């Protein structure tokens, strides 16, 4: 019982740290490319050190896996860049809630990835996600920051769904820590050219924030999440992970004074409800 309680604490600590990551989109005045470059670089560095000290094998087992890892790193870079851009052009709540569409996207795309039959729940999930986004966006005007934020956030959720589906192939061969290390390392390398294009370079304050984002909100959060799974079912962890936007919005309210609008809350409730529904169905099947 004590082990389960400890694991639940680790699980929700990880989700809280993941939710906290969204706040850095407002705390940092850097471009999304540089934010993600810093996050991925610090995360890869810390994961590489930890894996090396713990005796994990970091070498790619098959050279044909290397192009795939580079592609997965590119997807991670796309996911995080669109996520932080969504927050910068709109609000933390909109960025987090529209990103939370990813479980529904996974459910929608799974039949096509694994050649399965489309179920009525897949169709329902699609409709509910669209409804949630429509409720969040008052009018589809691309001049509006809310509209652009919702679109970028949805793209972030869509790209993360693809990343999640593709990752399933490699979790049977590599540990999740090794996969995460390679994805962060290649995401940082792919974004490195943007560093030399930037006119505004990170200050000491920015570097400290990026260090916190990469070490605590990425590497540590991932470690806590995986550690929690030692004594918790994946089903419990998946349901709890839907709390990430809730934690992030509460932290944004307390720390930054950002109050979400009623439409955002309503649309977010529909999206989170859909995420919970498809997650529970997927894990229960």
Topology:
Blueprint: H1 2-20, H2 24-27, H3 32-53, H4 65-89, H5 92-99, H6 102-113, H7 120-136, H8 145-167, H9 176-197, H10 204-228, H11 234-241, H12 244-256, H13 262-284
Can you tell me about this structure?
The protein has helices at residues 2-20, 24-27, 32-53, 65-89, 92-99, 102-113, 120-136, 145-167, 176-197, 204-228, 234-241, 244-256, 262-284. The model has no long low-confidence stretch (mean pLDDT 87). 78% of the residues lie in helices and 0% in strands. Helix 1 packs antiparallel against helix 10 (204-228), helix 4 (65-89) runs antiparallel to helix 5 (92-99) and helix 4 crosses helix 9 (176-197). By secondary structure, it is mostly helical. It is built from 13 helices and no strands. It has one domain (2-284). It is globular and about 50 Å long.
Keywords, separated by commas or semicolons:
single chain; 285 residues; mainly alpha; 13 helices
The number of helical segments is: 13
* Strand and helix order: HHHHHHHHHHHHH
Q: What does the radius of gyration come to?
A: 18 Å
Quote the beta fraction: under 5%
Largest sheet: number of strands, sense, barrel closure: none
Query: Looking at the structure, what is the overall shape?
Result: globular
- Count of domain modules: 1
Calculate the terminal CA-CA distance, rounded to whole Å: 27 Å
* Low-confidence blocks of residues: none
* Percent range of helical residues: over 70%
Strand element count? 0
The computed structural class is: mainly alpha
Q: Mean pLDDT, nearest integer?
A: 87
